[in-house]
Amino acid sequence: MNLNPIQLFDTESSTFTYILTGPGSNQAVIIDPVDHHWERDLRHLERLGLQLVYVLETHAHADHVTSAGKLRELTGAQAAVPSGCGIAPAELQLNDGDVIRFGDGEEIKVLHTPGHTAGSMSYIWRGNAFTGDTLLIDGCGRTDFQSGSSDALYDSVSAKLFSLPQETRMWPGHDYKGQAVSTIGWEKRHNVRLANRSREDFCKLMSELNLPKPKLIDVAVPANQNLGLPHGA
Fold first, then answer.
1. Please, which pLDDT band fits residue 1 given cuts at 50, 70 and 90?
2. Locate the Metallo-beta-lactamase domain: which residues (predicted)?
């Protein structure tokens, strides 16, 4: 059974937020919420009669501030974050192979997929993969800052994500071209940066991107390491 998440979008940072819920329970999980959409996200939960139990982060983002701390305060949910991202206030520090359980037997499997950042995680639930900034539709996250590594990203995608069932739906952390969802099989065959590309070619390609520094990085990363709350809060 392939159950779709609720997918929400922030136009400013092109960030996707996801709400997951399964049959038989009103418990829900949210992935990568954005600070100025916390009211929108709460309205979705309220409208659907859902109780938020976990707020998940795929990594400490550099392009937007999370609302994880705010949502945790308002709902009583627990924050669950990659252990390698320095997000100390979170209740759960996740490691590769962990399983997050909620609702009526729902399970989210945790995959450590470093490369965009050293701590980056992907989450697998009901035939869906939430890949954060590790794997994007026809692309991937940058690897030139915040403990990034092209070598590590190549391994994360080729050895871990591309080995998932080919029909797995792939839900990215961002999209800049109006796309919403792909499949692992399509990305394995067609992804312009990674499909049928050697490690050497991939690392060379990534080293030559020369992307500008994210505008919010100096604000966003420290804020996100405190779940988006003011330091001292």
1. very low
2. 14-174
